[in-house]
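[Meeting: bench + compute handoff]

Bench side (C.D.) handed over the final construct sequence. Compute side (W.E.) agreed to return the predicted structure before the next meeting so the bench team could plan truncations. Sequence as handed over:
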Amino acid sequence: MYLSIQGVLQFQIYQIPMVGADTCGFNGNADEELCNRWMQLSAFLPFFRNHNTYDALPQEPYRWDSVANASRVAIGARYSLLPYWYTLFANASGLGLPPVRALFYEFPEEPELFSVDKQWLVGKDILVTPVLVPGVTTVDGIFPGRGNVIWRDWWTHAVVPLTDGSSTITLPTPIGHINVHIRGGSVLLLHGKPGYTIYETMTGPYELLVSFDGEGRAYGDAFVDAGDGAFAFDCGASDGSNVGSLARKLAFTAGGGQLNIASQWGEYEIERLLERIIVLGVGTCPTTVVLQGTEVSGWKYDETIGELDIGGVAVNLNEDIVLVWM
């Protein structure tokens, strides 16, 4: 399991990004704890399958209740992140950027990250810290940025409490839990209702997750097409010069109490609506939230984590959008 992380990171450099291990191991017999941890780990890698040799004991997730439950949670997150993964692979195809990255790739000025091979980044914005040894309920994680980058828990949205410039912290990791964190300064387009299959998931609404950095700013983008293979990056197409109606590139920028959504290029008609927007790092409770010039009533604010949660909206992502809170 540990060595598979190194393999995935190496193949990103080889420009073969769609890789992953035989989850729970191919040879030998997996036990419940190993398969529990491994199913959650693999959910945050590009290629994900549970597979082993005929000579080994069966290891399907449903063999153990705890593994089945842990798998459902991790796969739910994986399906939520599919628009983000899809954008990463579009960038891999058109620009040669690796979807999975060693920590030093995004933080090359921090030599203490050069030897880190027990964690990885999905794109630039998702940090994964798995458990790789048996019988433990905590894991030590290093958070790039030397205390100057905000990291938030994917599951709770709480800020990681880094102090005194420290970048390492011991994280609670009970069985069935994997630590995943969101980088401050990011905007992620997500599937709002993960389903039983990818197709079912894709027919549901979108969500947008905004995670402010220390200066109260965030940005991101998303590549969207029909997912049927009709679009391909030809010479020059990565800048949108010849994509027509086959794809659309969205840009998200946030700061100063405002979120902007705009199309960078392409005319692909996005059918699914954006129905929820979550903004993390809002310092004070707003009095008013306005979307496209109309006041929104379906929002709530959690002061303990600075979360503004705007639900019940129906945003057409083919249009330029302005959201303001004050």
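W.E. noted at the follow-up: The chain is about 20% helix and 30% strand. C.D. will use this when planning the next construct.
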